[in-house]
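Preliminary data (for renewal application), adenosine-5'-diphosphate-glucose complex.
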Amino acid sequence: MPQESSKRLVVVSNRLPASLKQVEGEWTVQPGSGGLVTAIAPVLKNRGGLWIGWSGGHGDVDLPKLLGDFSKDAGYDLHPVQLTEEEVRGYYYGFANEIIWPLFHDFQSRCNFDPSYWRDYLDVNLKFAEVTARYSRESDYIWVHDYHLMHLAFMLRNMGIQRSCGFFLHIPFPPPDIYLKLPWRDKILRALLEFDLVGFQTLRDRRNFVECMEALVPNAKCTGRGNMVTIEHQNRKIRAGGFPISIDFNQFASLSADKDVVRMADEFKDALRHRKIILGVDRLDYTKGIPQRLEAIRQLFIRFPDLREKVTFVQIAVPSREEIPEYHSLKVEIEQLVGEINGQFTRPGWIPIHYQYRNLPRPELVSYYRAADMALITPLRDGLNLVAKEYCAANVNENGVLFLSEFAGAAAQLQNAGAILVNPYDTEGVAKAIRRAYYMDKRERHTRMSKLRESVRRNNIYWWVDSFLQAAFSSQLEDFPQDTVDFQTESTST
Ligand code: ADQ
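Predicted structure:
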């Protein structure tokens, strides 16, 4: 890799990779456990660096002291961006969650294009840029994450601050017919062109981005074929490419083999009397298709009575964005559907759907993955979907079946690797696919799952960080290792 790869890294995301918790009356900082933190923390520690993000409120704590202590242990610095309640309401709940999230997931009818949200979004992006400018140096590489902060490079340039900046979008980028509905479509697209590298989850997202750019910024020129392209705009070169995010494969695989996890998985199977387990795991969000999935389960029991009392569907939903009324109505809708379907089919000794609404500790979550015979992952739209990869990594016995929505970014990588693709809106089609998998022989299940696990093991989270940083630091497009991206299956899509 070129010498520049030793640049200090500055990560900027909406939230810091740590949360504040009260333990016996004392505030403490607990490290985050998500994949992004796991992958980036060692890079930050090795090459030196910092993470900038919103700390999440708590006005009564001595934040600099708490974060200072945490930084010493972590080996990299955390710098908080402090936001007022109004800013959080307008920028986070408003602009990010009521405009960009629904629009970019093709739910334009759920958007609330309130112009005041836009102003809050700009103000908060400016605040993030000020903190970034204060704590970073000109030689640093700034890596910005996600749709909350699309204006960060633009703000830095406006302030006259020279930095190399990369951006990664964790959610889908919509095609022009949807993106063009955004009232601030030009400004956001031009702001994204202020980054030096713009990364997406899939090749399709990258193509959508280029098509929107061609419609809105006609003087920008795009060259290159395949995964990475170069865009020339106002005497600058911007790179755009697909980098499907992943998980720490070894961490999930070894946790799944841990004796406590094995015991929990066995207890869970005993409790369900060794019926086949179909598992759904999601944040409770309308993009995840939980009601449609429940309807598919209903269809399964209507169309195939031979499977009644033979399979149990377990849906685990993690509470999310509970302050937003739509998320509350979705929760009620799901609870009603579960009650209805259970009322329709339950027999003594068998409840068809087990529903849990809670955040699970990682070992418990992995024990569910381990125990499940099938994972039913059917978002209506998803940037990637990490649960699909976590299920494969944890399926150490290699006998599980992964059903994956065609509309999850992960489908581009995993469809040729053994996942069974389904259309989440086609509830009868999903039911038929489940029945086929129920009777699938052991050899086919094993062939599919070992291929899936190999794909996730190879393209793990460390590979993802390396791919992005290599693209960020290489001066030549050819330096980017195209052949390591499993995108061949997407070549027919636009
Ligand atoms: P999310 O929409 O949050 O992420 P996903 O990728 O599936 O979706 O990640 C969810 C995470 O939450 C997983 O790591 C999972 O283990 C965890 N989780 C889910 N249910 C849980 C429960 N009940 N208890 C504990 N943990 C639970 C966004 C995008 C995705 C993209 C990721 C990463 O929407 O498309 O894959 O970012 O880029």
